[in-house]
């Protein structure tokens, strides 16, 4: 069995950044595995621009952003096995991991690795999870599948489109389909606010006159063979359709952009402890999971809205995997982190005693204006910061300085306080 | 072209009959109106092999159910179709329900169902810890089982074709006329001749009967809505969990499937449109509400799809098996509602016997092979088997569907084996590509591409399930397309 120091599962933005960071910290016997025929992950089909504003202060397309990292991978000569799907991950009694994978070129292979970085990304929530009534004709796609058809295969999934969900991919596809000559009739969003970035709502919908129908959902799909129409309806505060508000919109396509789910079947199978809210692994500030030597980063850990943050997080995982391989022990006492009062989740979920400075990433459960974000530990306030607006669609970052980190000696909570609340 | 027997209808009943016919020196053909087989009730049902305690003693349903249950194990093995005798339970929620269970038990014993037993609540919870604490007891039927209905249908037809039978899809029978001693079966495109006809046309069996002047029965559709959940929910229960039966059927069940998912449903609603397979908000709501009555812990956030099946309910209330009124050379296998899937392996030899009685010469084929070549299932193989398979054919090393671990090699088998898959859904039924938690989000585009390549057609001619169900509407502007 081939022996490696580090195997990185996934060659998208997270996997590449993690590999590059690990290499820069001295790891040489490493390998990236990816199921696609090229590196880059989902960025390869994201041909719109807007990537890298934070990191490179430039507006790159997805493939351009990916290329920056792929070039580094090539420059360092980091080996990659492409068209390779990882099927299984197990921990041996000596703490090393066995990675089972398959590819047409390499066949069925088993690798032994001292450390593993999980960077498998996420997938889209399908129709089934939404329970939309009606027929099951052709013409219902997730926004990402439609994006692949249009941008990679050069094929149009439809000509007259309704989009359910205002996640970023849905917004991007509203513009993309319009540019390809399709008519986007409406984007319906169940919630009273969009789950996408404000800039995408402006640039992808407003600029093209595409209506965004907040507090609306699709209640029925019509058409036996191909979609012929959808019925939409307004929803009340309980998010249930309000009778009498139904409107039937003729269309041939329904695109779904109703959420992303970290793709963690492999992690679960490996026995990694999961966070039911993020759908990703429970990690410490080094991005190490509950299994020593197994790290996680990027959208497999929690869904990010900007790839810049994926790269940032992956670099933490890459560096810390290198430290782990150098024999750095990471079994110090851990303090849990939890969100409350409007904070849905916080990553990392645990902080090691004596941790180096790090940042907390979190998401809120609703739109709040003029709130105070408070980070507390055992009655001490570590951070208190006022924010004009927080929304579920935008991830918040909260860097902690060394003196703040040094005060952590128990449960850390992140919560929202209504500024000037009565 | 003249056939000895034409079987109308490519559901599980037609499939089993075609296979039975292929044991004999006969020229047989199966005619299916859709683009693939297993497109009606055989595609969307509870996938249950019933023990046989539901049907009234003395009915055809009772007889064929118990016989079919006993045959299923062998048939599934020969056809290499997953089957599991997981046992079934009928729950009682009240003292009145307990009386119903006793009635069912006695009825089952009269029907010849072995090993039936009434369990006290503690025994139930020991077997099935996820069952409601509200129950008063349950009827336990260890011979109950689960099977994949469309795989059984496809497997039976493949085996029949390997033994010389033929299949014509997209053949919608619009008329039958007599030409001397034989029948001419007419579709809008072509006609075929056959000496005998078997009517296994499911919901449309009454219409076929009327084509030869037999109006002795009618079939009406009964809608049943289901919700299928992800494999995370698939181990919640091990047995098939029923609620006490009512006039409208066996109530809402909760069952694992042979593929490891959890299936809940069906509702039961008499409708008039034989093609109305829509799901409804009210129906799905009802499925959830009633299913959690049996198993409170079902997490409906893990639904991966919902679907509607239509049962072919005969007005007589029992299977219609026998020669048509006034037409002894047409044999009905009609009105095969529940427990039809279970009964199909037993109905088939009976239909062949009736054909023989009607004068069809039955000379066994010496070289009949009952075994279907197993469909390679990468996901179920051992390390050694996987290694050998990929070495032999690298296309089995290319994972197309990551949720279900389906390889390109399997997709190619589906397209090139009998009965051939010609659409995305047909590939899905044969391989499970697209049947997982992402529901084809990732593998959909790849399957479309492989189908286009293998069938030698442009991508935008690939359909979801035949007819006008095209997946794509043309090329993008960059590829030279025009809106």
Task: Explain how this protein is built.
The complex is a heterodimer of chains A (422) and B (483). Chain A is built from 8 helices and 29 strands. Chain A is an alpha/beta fold. Chain A has 3 domains: 1-124 and 260-331, FAD/NAD(P)-binding domain (3-Layer(bba) Sandwich), CATH 3.50.50; 126-258, FAD/NAD(P)-binding domain (3-Layer(bba) Sandwich); 333-422. In chain A, the strands form 7 sheets. In chain A, strands 1, 2, 5, 6, 7, 8 and 21 form a 7-stranded mixed sheet that branches. A 5-stranded parallel sheet of chain A has the order 11-19-13-14-15. In chain A, strand 3 and strand 4 form a beta hairpin. The longest helix of chain A is centred in the last third of the chain and has 19 residues, at 307-325. The model of chain A has no long low-confidence stretch (mean pLDDT 95). Among the domains of chain B are: 86-145 and 222-312, D-Amino Acid Oxidase, subunit A, domain 2 (D-Amino Acid Oxidase, Chain A, domain 2), CATH 3.30.9.10; 378-475. Chain B has 12 helices and 23 strands. Chain B has helices at 12-21, 60-79, 95-111, 121-127, 149-162, 205-211, 281-294, 340-357, 383-392, 408-416, 424-431, 443-455; strands at 2-8, 28-31, 48-49, 83-84, 88-92, 117-119, 137-141, 145-147, 166-168, 175-179, 182-186, 191-199, 219-229, 240-242, 253-256, 262-265, 269-270, 303-314, 320-324, 327-334, 399-401, 406-407, 474-475. In chain B, the strands form 5 sheets. In chain B, strands 1, 2, 9, 10, 11, 12, 19 and 20 form an 8-stranded mixed sheet that branches. In chain B, strands 13, 15, 16, 17 and 18 form a 5-stranded antiparallel sheet that branches. In chain B, strands 6-7-5-14 form a 4-stranded mixed sheet. The longest helix of chain B has 20 residues, at 60-79. Chain B starts with a strand and ends in an 8-residue tail after the last strand. At the A-B interface, strand 7, strand 8, strand 10, helix 3 and strand 12 of A face helix 7, strand 18, helix 9, helix 12 and strand 23 of B.
């Amino acid at each position: 069995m081939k022996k490696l120091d580090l195997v990185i599962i996934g060659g998208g933005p997270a996997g590449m950044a993690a590999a590059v960071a690990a290499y820069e910290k001295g790891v040489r016997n490493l390998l990236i595995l990816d199921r696609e025929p090229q590196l880059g992950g989902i960025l390869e089909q994201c041909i719109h621009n807007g990537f890298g504003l934070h990191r490179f202060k430039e507006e790159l397309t997805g493939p351009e952003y990916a290329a920056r990292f792929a070039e580094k991978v090539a420059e360092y000569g980091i080996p990659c096995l492409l068209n390779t799907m990882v099927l299984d991950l197990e921990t041996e009694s000596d703490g090393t991991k066995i990675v089972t994978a398959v590819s047409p070129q390499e066949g069925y292979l088993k690798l032994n690795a001292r450390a593993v970085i999980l960077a498998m990304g996420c997938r889209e929530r399908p129709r089934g999870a939404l329970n939309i009534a009606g027929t099951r004709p052709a013409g219902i796609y997730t926004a990402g599948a439609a994006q692949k058809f249009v941008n990679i295969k050069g094929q149009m999934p439809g000509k007259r489109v309704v989009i359910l969900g205002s996640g970023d991919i849905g917004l991007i596809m509203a513009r993309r389909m319009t540019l390809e000559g399709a008519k986007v009739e409406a984007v319906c969003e169940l919630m009273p606010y969009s789950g996408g970035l404000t800039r995408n709502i402006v640039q992808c919908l407003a600029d093209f006159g595409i209506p965004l129908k907040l507090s609306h959902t699709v209640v029925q799909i019509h058409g036996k063979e191909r979609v012929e129409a959808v019925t939409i309806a307004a929803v009340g505060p309980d998010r249930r359709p309000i009778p009498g508000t139904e409107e039937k919109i003729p269309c041939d396509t329904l695109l779904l952009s109703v959420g992303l789910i970290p793709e963690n079947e492999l992690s679960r199978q490996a026995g990694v402890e999961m966070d039911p809210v993020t759908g990703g692994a429970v990690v410490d500030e080094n991005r190490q999971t509950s299994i020593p030597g197994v790290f996680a980063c990027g959208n497999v850990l929690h869904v990010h809205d900007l790839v810049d943050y994926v790269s940032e997080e992956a670099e933490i995982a890459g560096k810390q995997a290198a430290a782990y391989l150098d024999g750095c022990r990471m079994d110090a006492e851990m303090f849990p982190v939890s969100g409350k009062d409007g904070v849905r989740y916080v990553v990392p979920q645990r902080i090691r005693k004596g941790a180096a400075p790090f940042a907390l990433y979190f998401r809120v459960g609703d739109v709040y204006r003029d709130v105070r974000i408070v980070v507390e530990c055992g009655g001490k306030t570590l951070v208190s910061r006022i924010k004009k607006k927080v929304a579920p669609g935008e991830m918040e970052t909260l860097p902690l300085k060394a003196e703040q980190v040094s005060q952590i000696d128990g449960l850390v909570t992140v919560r929202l306080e209504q500024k000037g609340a009565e | 072209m003249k056939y000895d027997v034409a079987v109308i209808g490519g559901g599980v009943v037609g499939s089993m009959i075609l296979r039975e016919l292929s044991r004999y020196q006969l020229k047989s053909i199966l005619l299916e109106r859709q683009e693939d087989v297993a497109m009606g009730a055989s595609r969307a049902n509870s996938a249950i092999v019933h023990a046989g305690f539901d049907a009234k003693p003395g009915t055809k349903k009772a007889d064929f159910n118990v016989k079919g249950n006993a045959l299923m194990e062998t048939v599934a093995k020969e056809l290499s179709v997953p089957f599991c005798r997981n046992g079934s339970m009928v729950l009682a929620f009240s003292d009145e329900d307990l009386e119903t269970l006793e009635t069912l038990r006695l009825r089952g014993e009269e029907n010849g169902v072995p090993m039936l037993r009434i369990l006290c609540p503690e025994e139930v919870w020991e077997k099935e810890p996820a069952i409601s604490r509200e129950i008063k007891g349950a009827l336990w039927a260890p011979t109950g089982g689960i099977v994949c209905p469309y795989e059984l249908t496809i497997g039976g037809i493949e085996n029949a074709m390997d033994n010389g039978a033929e299949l014509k899809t997209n053949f919608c029978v619009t008329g039958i006329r007599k030409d001397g001693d034989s029948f001419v079966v007419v579709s809008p495109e072509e006609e075929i001749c056959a000496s005998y006809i078997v009517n296994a046309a499911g919901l449309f069996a009454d219409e076929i009967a009327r084509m030869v002047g037999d109006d002795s029965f009618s079939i009406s559709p009964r809608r049943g809505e289901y919700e299928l959940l992800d494999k995370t929910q698939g181990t919640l229960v091990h047995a098939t969990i029923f609620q006490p039966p009512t006039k409208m059927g066996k109530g809402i069940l909760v069952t694992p499937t042979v593929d490891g998912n959890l299936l809940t449903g069906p509702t039961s609603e008499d409708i008039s449109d034989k093609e109305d397979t829509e799901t409804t908000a009210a129906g799905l709501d009802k499925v959830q509400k009633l299913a959690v009555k049996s198993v409170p812990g079902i997490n409906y956030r893990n639904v991966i799809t919902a679907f509607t099946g239509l049962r072919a309910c005969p007005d007589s209330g029992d299977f219609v098996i026998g020669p048509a009124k006034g037409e002894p050379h047409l044999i009905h296998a009609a009105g095969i509602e529940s427990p039809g899937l279970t009964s199909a392996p037993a109905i088939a030899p009976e239909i062949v016997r009736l054909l023989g009685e009607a004068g069809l010469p039955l000379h066994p084929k010496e070289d009949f092979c009952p075994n279907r070549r197993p469909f390679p299932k990468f996901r179920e193989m051992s390390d050694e088997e996987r290694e050998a398979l990929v070495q032999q054919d690298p296309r089995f090393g290319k994972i197309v569907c990551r949720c279900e671990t389906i390889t390109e090699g399997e997709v190619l088998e589906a397209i090139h084996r009998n009965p051939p898959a010609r659409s995305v859904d047909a590939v899905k039924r044969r391989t499970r590509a697209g049947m997982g938690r992402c529901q084809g989000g990732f593998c959909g585009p790849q399957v479309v591409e492989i189908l286009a390549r293998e069938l030698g057609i442009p991508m935008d001619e690939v359909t979801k399930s035949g007819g006008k169900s095209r997946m794509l509407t043309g090329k993008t502007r960059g590829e030279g397309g025009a809106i």
